[in-house]
## 1
Amino acid sequence: MGLQITHTPDFVMKWFLFFVLAIGLGLCSSTANSVSGYNYYRLPTALKPQKYYLRILTLLENPEELRFTGTVKIVIEALENTRNITLHSKNLTIDESKITLRKISEDGNKDNCVTSTSINPIHDFYILNTCEELLAGNVYKLSVPFSADLSRQLIGYYRSSYKDPETNVTRWLSATQFEPASARKAFPCFDEPAYKASFVVTLGYHKKFTGLSNMPVKETKPHESLTDYIWSHFEESVPMSTYLVAYSVNDFVNKPSTLPNGALFRTWARPNAIDQCDFAAEFGPKVLQYYEQFFGIKFPLPKIDQMAVPDFSAGAMENWGLVKYRESTLLFSKTHSSLADKQDLANVIAHELAHQWFGNLVTMKWWTDLWLNEGFATYVASLGVEDIHPEWNTKDRGSLTTMMATFRLDSLVTSHPISRPIKMVTEIEESFDAISYQKGSSVLRMMHLFMGEDAFRSGLKSYLQLYAYKNAEQDNLWESLTEAAHKNGALPKNYEIKTIMDSWTLQTGYPIVNVTRDYKTGTAKLGQERYLRNTEISRAQCVGCWWIPLSYTTQNEKDFSNTAPKAWMECSRSGESIPKTIQDLPGPDQWVIFNNQLSTPYKVNYDAQNWKLLIQTLNSEEFQSIHVINRAQLIDDVLYLAWTGEQDYETALQVTDYLQRERDLLPWTSAFNNLKLLNRILRQTPNFGFFKRYMKKLFTPIYEHLNGINDTFSSIQHQDQILLKTMVVEWACQYQVSDCVPRAQSYFSRWRSEPNPDENNPIPINFRSSVYCAAIKYGTDEDWDFLWSRYKNSNVGTEKQVILGTLGCSREVWILQRYLERAFNPKGGIRKQDSSLSFQAVASREVGVLLAKKYLIDNVDLIHKYYYPQTRSMSRFFSQLSEQVITKSDLNGFRAFVNNSRQYLKGLSQTIQQSLEIMLTNVQWMERNYHQFSRSIQQHL
Ligand code: BES
Ligand code: ZN
């Protein structure tokens, strides 16, 4: 028996201490030297894996011992001479005596061997020192056996379970989640995205289960010694990154939905949920086919499975050929899921399938360019969903919401560039944020719109073809796009995509363009500066310059459809903005609007006269002559400008007043998104009454126009009106408009009197969230318990989410306290993946926020332990609370808390900085705007 190396945290800690001591005392032995000698966060580049043979036996029989054992054989090419093999490995037990190493050559394989091993716990390195030097040009085969418990966290190779409804017995299954850096917890490997290799996976398990992996099963054989166990051999994969490897052993069933000429397509779920797979099974292959056509590249694998995993930390994960989802993002129930749920599902599926090209086929070289994965998947998904469900009109709504998310986060000094340097593996997770996803998507859309369809598509296609099965950086994309744009005449020859796009991806923030018209000469002067929410920071200090494609239209012309730039705002070589003058603008009675359809992420401020003209049109019968996205833009812009003092609230309210006429979803989405922030501040102040009255005034007309909380859904023609109605009712019940609350309560009591409420729910699906919330807010303890029982009994992921979100609507301190405790108690009945929903449900409401804040402060150690090492889940807690902190003393209290709890908040520093800045900007708002706003709003009641 050789030495057992178990990388348990304890062990790691001891090693770490040993290093510190050894180095401090000058005691470095040869092993310690090899560890401390290489302490860079990236793998050495001497070796390159070509192929992995991965064999894993999964034991799911005994709930007390859910384990896996395996062997990985890696075919490694030496690019340089080296005396060691450095791999990633974490929390795996490795029997060193069984490691073998051979040189592969034509005249027979030659034995090499491993003299000693060591680990670097900081970078998860497992270092094997070899008997003989590995020589450049040679190929070696390394075999390493390993084993571990199936993890209890939702990362690496882990356990998940569900209850069989018939027998009430717990059924176990296994699943993987490797992105960004957890393949190393499942098998020793070169766990960086640029080390692409092909994978030959073999899974062993009891024959009553099914084994799934990226590729189809080639053959199945009985296990050599374990009775009733089998080995499933999967076909060899195409070259791919380790974070995309996936497998699962489960007792699920599937629904096939292969299209003619398409790859074999199956959707998997636990048996009792298979009837919820219809929508995903139908939508998935369609959107896959759309991408094949859009990119002009066929999906390269023979099959694709999508699987609903009962415990899953992300929303979904794009593993090549085996895409995994939460139940709530894959499963759709006709009787329990809403239209919004269905659209969300479609969007998630479209996102993950877009990754099969952007991410899987072409992968970023390093995590710095994560946005190439996530920004693309986000943008391309919106095209895919639009193509298959044009009646949903989701493309415009998606553009608006991604743009709004960008504006929000990127207005902070503590935001970061799209392209974000990553120096520690622990920093990678922080990049999965609105900047990579939403800002990434927004700048891609910007390019699409300024280059036009043909150039954009042909540029993308050549980029995908050039880098297929390889890795790329953003510069590679810029090259392909520049070439295509020049060929198509879509970009002036003296312009390069790189120059333009670097200004968007390497700089933090976005500009505000100030437009000052000269009404006599028909010209306008344009200047740009960074928009910052934090007014303590002088804008002059935060210099920046963005290359801005300028599209605009006038009141005469009203041509919002043309998103090609009429001019550009340019930057000098030294990075300063070059002021721009626009000619041929109309007279003083005609407005101008910049940024047709909000094609580029910038804000616009106009001179007073132009705002006046815009306000006149908005508040007239003609308001629809302004494009619906630009109406949403004007609301968003003017409320931002008022927030930071570039406009007064009088002007802003003159804009929002027009909402009484508005019947379209997008401007309302923009309005609610902004008014929500004011609501969260003002509801803590004595002047909230005025705000409430104003809100009621604004949306009573639309509430009535849509027939309020009456179930008129079957007669609604346009799908976005369904969403609008859902949204308006939610706000109406919150502000007790008209009959909203009593009607909600009567729906709820009808449900309560159903003999079988789990089967029959008389509440219209699209109102359920509003109805539950109102019923819980104004209801009794029994109402809460009733809803909790429905949560426990529900078989539908989306329904469970809605309930978790509304159980926090209570205003009873003890009930909320009990709810929070259940959320973080492993036996409380709420899965770990969902605890943050409960916390947010409490934290987002006026009574709950106080309790949630205290709960977090008092229990930060326990909450940290509950999530560790996936503490990223806690980041939402901070952002949620930050929007509701409005006083200096609360801000200081938070600062002190963060300082005292540093050891529990590692890996959250970005979110925490951002949250503190949001709190600060709220304090600033109170100081600067509270009185002015309160005065102005009274003039508008
Ligand atoms: N690649 C991500 C999954 C992921 C997220 C892995 C964070 C590691 C850390 C996946 O493609 C994704 O983006 N999922 C989203 C849902 C999507 C529709 C926006 C998610 O998990 O929220
Ligand atoms: Zn993604």
## 2
Amino acid sequence: MILILKKGVTEDQVEYVLKKIEQAGLKPHISKGADVTVIGCIGHEDAVKAFFEEAQALAGVDKAIRISKPYKLASKEIGKEKSIIKIGNVEIGGDKIAIIAGPCAVETLENITDIAENVKDAGAVILRGGAFKPRTSPYTFQGLGEEGLKFLGEARKRTGLLVVTEVMDPRDLDLVCRYADIIQVGARNMQNFRLLQEVGMVKKPVILKRGLCSTIQEFLMSAEYIMSNGNESVILCERGIRTYETSTRNTLDLSAIPVLKRLSHLPVIVDPSHAAGVWYYIESLSLAAIAAGADGLMIEVHPMPEKAYSDGAQSLKYDTFSKLIGKAKLVANAVNRNI
Ligand code: PEP
Ligand code: MN
């Protein structure tokens, strides 16, 4: 439920409304606009229902409106049109499209620093690289763990790029937070609710990837798990979903971009690499994603894809990546954005 406060509401009245929300067992989320203040009341459905009549009658409250969607904080109905997430000197969700690039997995210090320098030169602002890898087979490379995080930290220091890396297990969260600027929750863990709750309690932005077979509503409910635990800096990432098509690893759901933008105020980025699974399609999908309104791209890059420890087939070489960014700038300009 949201409470729209009256114009000219006093500070005392706002305080009183906040107190009443808490007494009803709900959490208030206040957003002060230019002329109207809106307070979201978040909590158990029964508590919201019980509080509805009383809330409408409180001094200073103009009207109470139930949020119709099952996700509340992630919904535009909470009274937010667009969230811009600031991380260091990078903004995601504003006019500028954020380019995130790097290898699938952190391999060696030399490799990650070389990739960091090259993707930075091409226009990336955030370095990606997995240290804890969610591999389908337990007999393939699982990531370097803490050593990989240290290498990422070193690449960050040398280039000034921000770093995003995946956390798969709540037990690794503290460690990952020591090195990462942004936490990634991967597709396979999109509905690992305990992990989502834990990630909701840290003060780092989160890139939440859409599950392999998840609907948009399920995706937004997972964002809600993170947000309702206190962390509202969630960036949604469309990375392809499973369909009957086998020419590509997954099918990039381009429709998810305008749909998510219509339903939610959260930024939406696109990972064309895990969608395509084949490097050849990454450029087209990236350009299409920008045209459809994506706030960022996350792309796998490797200097020698044939030698990559994982996902070589979908990794771009430096020159291909750099050419893609050149074209992406033109598409961004065509839709009044920039890179
Ligand atoms: C990744 O980004 O490294 C990854 C494993 O992606 P996804 O979770 O989308 O499969
Ligand atoms: Mn990968």
